[in-house]
Amino acid sequence: MTEFSIYTKDTAPTGSIPTLEAAEKKFGFIPNLLGELAESPVAVEAYLSLSGTFGKSTLTPAEQQVVLLTTSYENECHYCMAAHTGGAKMAKLDEGAIQALRAGEPIADPKIEALRGFTRKLVVNRGWVQPADIDSFVAAGYTRANVFEVITGVALKTISNYTNHVAETPLDDKLAALKWDKPAKAA
């Protein structure tokens, strides 16, 4: 079985060191995900660059976390579900909404539920949404630009979710309290 290293600033390929230094400055530590992505300077830089770009979207920070959590739920990514549960709390997303996202259930707030539902349809249908799905999303208060911002968030999480699956990324100690396992569906 192939095992991947979790690089530090001291062990990373030279081209990844500046990106890891920037990540440590931003987060206060180097998350295991980034330590693994550092195997490829291009991959770790691309991920952080896209993350920064998505952060500039017209979606609120809480709405961005809805996109990231929904994508991570559908892709069954234990690491990103824990990380973005913390992100959602920092973004002041309603606790009930956070718990619904962690359970893969509808959210009480209709606008936020429209965002969750649209994101979910994008992920499970691999981008093949119906015109009615877009119309419903826009009717809930979002814009056509938000459609593409959601796609950007899904792309961001696809990079990290797939990385975590391939590398079997262990959860950082700082995320242990937010551990997530996909709930079993009722028969």
Any descriptors?
187 residues; mainly alpha; single chain; AhpD-like; 0% strand
Draw up the topology in text:
Elements: H1 17-27, H2 32-37, H3 41-54, H4 61-74, H5 78-90, H6 95-103, H7 110-124, H8 131-139, H9 144-167
Can you describe this structure?
The longest helix has 24 residues, at 144-167. The mean pLDDT is 96. With 187 residues, the chain is an all-alpha fold. Helix 3 runs antiparallel to helix 9 and helix 4 (61-74) runs parallel beside helix 6. The protein has helices spanning 17-27, 32-37, 41-54, 61-74, 78-90, 95-103, 110-124, 131-139, 144-167. 61% of the residues lie in helices and 0% in strands. The chain has a single domain, classed as AhpD-like (Up-down Bundle).
CATH class designation: Mainly Alpha
What would you give as the CATH superfamily? Answer: AhpD-like
Largest sheet: none
Shape: globular
Label the CATH architecture. Answer: Up-down Bundle
* Percent helix: 55-70%
Average pLDDT level: 96
Distance between the termini: 34 Å
**What's the structural domain tally?**
1
Q: Total number of β-strand segments? A: 0
Beta strand %: under 5%
Segments where pLDDT lies below 50 for 5+ residues? none
What's the order of the H and E elements?
Answer: HHHHHHHHH
